[in-house]
UniProtKB/TrEMBL annotation:
This is Lipoprotein. It comes from the Bacteria. It comes from Luteolibacter flavescens.
């Protein structure tokens, strides 16, 4: 009986600290670690950013944004400011599959714009996040796979993919 209690305590602790979300193989697919490092090292550089759309239902952040040749671990989860350009998936939330807000989850983009130096609040994730003023974008990859580690697990209802 004692081992059952301990087992339940371990499982409960793993769920509460989200340790269980990083155990085992991820569900995002993608390249090997070496292939990802080589791809980042060979990225064209310039006065732009790379962004990875990260859609979680009911949140208003856009995704992760980084400089060229910078590791994704250095990326910032950001909110897009749309004064100059609307974000790529600015569509109705209840539209048809593939044509609704968030359809582009995990797409990789080349983003033109800049961090404004301000933070914006996303009430649904309870976070103050850097604000990125978007001035243009183009899709780089529609299926790049994992973002931070090969064991990344995506859940559309909670934040599970973050740098550690």
């Amino acid at each position: 009986m004692r081992w059952i209690s301990r087992g339940l305590m371990v499982v409960g602790t793993m769920v509460l600290c989200q340790c269980a979300g990083s155990m085992g193989a991820g569900n995002m697919g993608g390249p090997t670690v070496e292939e990802r490092k080589a791809a980042i090292a060979s990225e064209p550089s310039g006065d732009f950013f790379y962004g990875r759309r990260y859609y979680i239902e009911k949140t208003r952040f856009w995704g992760y944004v980084k400089r060229p040749r910078q590791s994704w671990d250095k990326a910032k989860l950001a909110i897009i400011r749309e004064d100059k350009k609307r974000q790529p998936d600015r569509l109705p939330e209840n539209g048809p599959q593939g044509a609704r807000y968030g359809y582009d989850h995990n797409f990789e983009y080349r983003l033109n714009g800049y961090f404004t130096g301000k933070e914006a609040y996303d009430p649904n994730s309870n976070q103050f996040l850097p604000e990125f003023m978007l001035t243009g974008y183009e899709v780089v990859n529609r299926n790049p796979g994992w973002l931070f580690r090969p064991d990344d697990k995506y859940d559309p209802y909670r934040i599970t993919v973050y740098p550690r």
